[in-house]
Design goal:
globular; 182 residues; 6-stranded antiparallel sheet; binds 2-oxoglutaric acid; 5-stranded antiparallel sheet; binds fe (ii) ion; Jelly Rolls; alpha+beta; dioxygenase
Length: 182
């Protein structure tokens, strides 16, 4: 799967666009810097099937209440030198609220080997604020791994460093949001 996805990402390099934050396409600016595509062409069906196949296991392991899955939303993000995504949650907030919401976030990681970048860890925060004893966990997901967490959990992508790197050496990640009605 990794070779296929790398080839796919490289073939679509020109179609990647700068990321924005929120449905209203507010300029990401200081919150997020990366490039994404949402059209997966031929790889869409096998990817959706793979993400769907992990859902029941994720619900059990994460101890989230079962929910009705309405749809999946997939996005392929490339983080290159200096890219990041500051602390945020993936559920919709404020005026963006709709009947169906993101319940779980899945992130599948892949990149060229040997890995050319450093940084880019996923930082998961506890709900307790840092000043009140809260903590965080930095996860460095290996190539070809899937990480799942509740979409409401605060998280961050630490800055990626890859000064000599080109697009092919990016930190690639496929975000899969499990949209549902609780
Ligand atoms: O790439 C990651 O590790 C997470 C990305 C993320 O948090 C997002 O796109 O909402
Ligand atoms: Fe996120």
């Amino acid at each position: 799967m990794v070779a296929r996805l790398l080839a796919f990402a490289l073939s679509r390099e020109a179609a990647f666009s700068d990321t924005t934050v929120g449905k209203r396409k507010i300029e990401g600016g200081q919150i997020r810097r990366s490039r994404v595509i949402r059209d997966f062409g031929d790889v869409n069906a096998p990817l959706e099937a793979a993400f769907r196949a992990r859902l029941s296991q994720a619900i059990t392991a994460l101890r989230v209440p079962p929910f009705t899955l309405d749809s999946l939303s997939l996005e392929l993000a490339a983080h290159g030198d200096g890219d990041f995504y500051r602390r945020h949650i993936d559920t919709f907030i404020g005026g963006e609220k709709t009947a169906t919401d993101r319940i779980l976030t899945g992130v599948y990681y892949f990149h060229a080997l040997p890995r050319a970048f450093t940084g880019g860890e996923l930082r998961l925060f506890s709900l307790r604020p840092i000043e009140h004893g809260g903590a965080h966990l930095d996860i460095e997901p290996p190539c070809d791994s899937l990480l799942l967490f509740p979409a409401w959990a605060p998280h961050e992508v630490l800055p990626v460093s890859c000064p000599e790197g080109n697009f092919a050496q990016s930190r690639f990640a496929i975000n899969c949001w499990y949209n549902g009605t609780a």
